Amino acid sequence: MLTMDRLVELDLLKAGIPGLADLGVGAQYFPGYRNVEAVHYRLNVTLLSVVVRGECTHLIGTDRFVRRGPNLDITPCGVTECTLTGAAGIDVMNLYLDLDRLRLPVLPAPAAALMPLLFPLRPEFNNRLNRILRTDLRPGGKIIALAFGMFEELRQRRLGWETAAMDYLRIFLLEACRCLAGGEVRPAVPESEPGHGWLSPVRACLDTRYREPLSLGELATVAGCSRNYLCRAFRSYTGKTVFAYLLERRIQAAMMQLRGGRDKIIGVAHDCGFRELSYFNRVFKRLVGTTPAAYRRGAAVPPVAADHAD
What we know:
There is one protein chain. This protein has about 300 residues and is an alpha+beta fold. It folds into 3 domains: about 5-185, Jelly Rolls (Sandwich), CATH 2.60.120; about 190-240; about 245-310, Arc Repressor Mutant, subunit A (Orthogonal Bundle), CATH 1.10.10. The chain is built from 11 helices and 11 strands. The strands form 2 sheets. A 6-stranded antiparallel beta sheet has the order 2-9-4-7-10-11. It has a 5-stranded mixed beta sheet with strand order 1-3-8-5-6, with no helix packed on it. A hairpin with a 2-residue loop joins β5 (about 55-60) and β6. About 40% of the residues are buried.
């Protein structure tokens, strides 16, 4: 079994990566990257890593995954990771998102609702299934071209580079959401692993029907087991209780709506599955660290004048 004998807290926010300090999004390209030393790094940003060419071994915590380009891996903030290569090396483009600073581009509502399934919006929302997501890419495909386009804008800083870089990011994220909607994005934890793969329909139910008043009994019926067994198995599968997973899914959906819209906060709460505004405010502040109205002011657009939820 792998161990993490060397763990480095990697502060990429102080690494001088083009764009990261200005916009909250940065990029670095490493052609011919080689590494044979198993040093694990804990990320303080979200990493979207595009392997353009080559094969490597990706270590996430104590787990090992073979990675063949071209592909896209998404690793959330707070996760420990290491990439080992052979003598031939890999060509890799790394995109970094500082979600505390970055004002995520506004996407169409169906895509925006999927964004928290691509990467958790806060490290507290990490679980065993989103610690790394992966999708294979076509050689010379659109996602690769968008990553290089953003990299060049951030590096060259020509007239209007901020707008151009954010436009590239918006389309990049939209394409990634399309891959997710098409079933092309998968968690690094194999869903076929013994004792856990059968819970995939339960997780999908929570991810897509989080607005509904789901009951434990209904989810147990979906899983085909008792409620007590479902609770134990789901926690082993995801690292979260069923209720915690559902609450985090709802809160992240609310965060996306608050970032990109002007709906009243009570409307956002109801749309994300909360019947009472006061309960929504309490849960939001506990999980996010601020009120919904304050989050809206800091993350996206000015608050609606009639909103007084905080």
